[in-house]
Amino acid sequence: MCEHCAEVLQNKLEENGFGVNNINLGDLTLEEKITDSDLIKLQSIINENGFEIIDDENSRIVEQIKKVIIDLVRTSKTLDGNLSNHLSKKLHKDYQQLSRLFSAVEGKSIERYFILQKIERAKELIVYDELTLSEIAYELDYSSQQHFSRQFKKETGLAPSHFKNIKENKRISIDRI
């Protein structure tokens, strides 16, 4: 969830009497417990603003996986080890269990989702035109610009340099991946 979306949703909730402690991608914490009728009202506000309440444990875990991956890609953090170890440490769960669950719910592997997030971030950085392709490859923790270029072309059908030249809006919002 972008900062603007979080701000809009928080304002809507507060206008309707809900005190918000924390709001960000995959997480909403209210100041007080709510009644069943408040839950219906809360759900309505959330749905009207294009979001949904996730109330089953498996979906919640999948959203946590997505949140960790998005944070990893968006903050340009370098993996300490590999993605599977990183997720296991962050979520305190066995990676095989996380992987099976994610694939069953999302229809794609965690690794595929990670690659797609990196490519969407690369598109964004290319469109901003503040970094060279080599710097973007480094920023996204690719081993080389060639590896980045091959993966970018495989996913988009375009070389990063060609994408940079056309600069059309070729991005997909992160919640649509």
Task: Describe the secondary structure blueprint for this structure.
Layout: H1 3-15, E1 20-24, E2 27-30, H2 36-48, H3 57-74, H4 83-91, H5 95-106, H6 110-128, H7 133-139, H8 145-156, H9 160-166
Antiparallel strand pairs: 1-2
Helix pairs in contact: 3-5, 3-6, 6-8, 7-8
Which percent range fits the helix content? 55-70%
The total of helices stands at 9
For the biggest β-sheet, the strand order reads 1-2
CATH level 3 topology of the largest domain: Arc Repressor Mutant, subunit A
Just give the CATH class of the largest domain. Mainly Alpha
Shape: globular
How many runs of DSSP E, i.e. beta strands? 2
* Tally of separate domains: 3
Strand content: 5-15%
Radius of gyration: 19 Å
Uncertain stretches of 5 or more adjacent residues: none
Order of helices and strands: HEEHHHHHHHH
CATH homologous superfamily label of the largest domain: Homeodomain-like
Instruction: State the separation between the terminal residues, measured CA to CA.
Output: 13 Å
Largest sheet, in brief, is:
2 strands, antiparallel
Based on secondary structure, the structural category is mainly alpha
Mean pLDDT: 86
Q: Would you identify the CATH architecture of the largest domain?
A: Orthogonal Bundle
